[in-house]
Amino acid sequence: AEAGAATGPARAERAIGGEPPADVARYEGTSGPVKAIVSSLTALVNTAFRAQYDAVDPADRAARAAAPDLSPAALEAGLVEDFRNDYLFTGAITPALYDDDCVFTDPTLTFTGLDTFRRNLAALEPVLDTLIGHVSVELRSSEVVEAERCVWCSWRMRGEVRLPWRPVIELQGRTRYTYDPARKGRIVRYDEFWESSAAEQLLSLLRPGKQEGG
Questions:
Q1: pLDDT, tens digit (0-9, with 9 covering 90-100), for 83-124
Q2: Over the chain, what is the mean pLDDT?
């Protein structure tokens, strides 16, 4: 995907600890049919665009086991760097920040394991590179909440879809990265919350989008 300029955290807008507002989109509130559509599309992509994927080798696992623990500040700095790399579109996370058994959840999908994330990404990459362009990811705020053992990030993402009617993906949300000091300070839960519903996001792909500068 074509990367746009990302920004660092804007401290004027603070991410707030605790549970997000009740009206944000989360996995538990998404309808069964929407989850089924996304799950089916994910399975289809994994089948149609299955890429050669090598699981983490034992030497890498040993290196991860020997690595020093992450401090909350180091974890936040690593996440800020991932946002600079437009990870919400590219999937280019820093594996060292995540536990092997991390649970990844957004309003449409949930799965367990860093290897599963990598396998899904390997299959999705050719689709993203072909269909998504002019992407931008803005990190609006980041905050460590040590009492909750998590980092909150607030963000906005936008990308144009290369289809004849030129729909646009435009989404605002927050992500809670829960870390565990007993797991080297790495992220054990990734929970993404959206300000619009998953159904609304799916429907937006059927509508012509407003192009920037248009």
A1: 999 999 988 899 999 999 999 999 988 999 998 888 888 777
A2: 83
Mention every residue, 6+ apart, whose C-beta is less than 8 A from residue 129.
1
Backbone phi, psi, residue 21, to 5°: -55, 155
Of the candidates 209, 186, 8, the one whose C-alpha atom is nearest the C-alpha of residue 101 is 186
CB-based contacts of 206, cutoff 8 Å, min separation 6: 167
Gyration radius of the chain's alpha carbons:
17
d(CA 172, CA 158) in angstroms, rounded, equals 9
The answer to whether 10 and 140 are in contact (CB under 8 A) is yes
* Beta-bridge mates of residue 194: 25, 173
CA contacts within 13 A on the Cβ side of 103: 8
Which residues, other chains included, contact 62 with Cβ-Cβ below 8 Å and sequence gap of 6+? Answer: none
pLDDT in tens, 147-179: 999 999 999 999 999 989 999 999 999 999 999
- pLDDT for the residue 13: 43
| pTM higher than the cut 0.85 | no
Neighbours of 213 (CB within 10 A): 4
Q: In what order do the strands lie in the sheet with 132-145?
A: 110-112, 98-105, 186-194, 168-180, 150-161, 132-145
The number of C-alpha atoms within 13 Å of 116 and in the hemisphere containing its C-beta is 14
